[in-house]
Amino acid sequence: MRAMLSDDPNDVRAFRALAEIVRRRAAEVGHDGDPLTAPQDEVEKQRAADLAVWALAEELAGNPRAWHPLIELARLSLHEDHEGAIRRLNTAVEREPTGVALIESLVVLREGGEPVEALNLGVGHWRVRDHRPEVARHLVLAAIEAGRPMDARHHLQALDLHPDTKAVAPLKAELAQLVAQADTAASGS
Question: Nearest Cα to 122, choosing from 148, 92, 142?
């Protein structure tokens, strides 16, 4: 797996598989490799596992083509090093042209309770014509989560610029319902 990641540091399957191995190993042995110094409680085990994944991601993030390891680093550091996490997400998005990194970055921010940061990142990087339409889903959801139904409507309307109208149509219908619900909730309060 490490060889696969050397060739392609953005191989998500290989990264997740190797990350799971290092997580398990970190929870079983101490930092010195001795099982007698292994973390004792669940918090220590989780911290050790996160540090092991951090080390793996940091090693791979040095590759100038790497974007997925940067997203993993941002996920692990979002609340402890907010500015650093945002920097990593920006770099990841700049390195990946299809919008996949932007989608994953928006998910990290939304799941981390940062919908406004997701909006900022998306507005700064979303290229409607070039990126996958799925970016719009996360921008609309982030706007709704941030209590900004007007922004949600704006992102929904931006999908009209996407060249793949066939792929966009069902997404627009789904998102239009969510925006309408957000509008109703906003006007009812």
Answer: 142
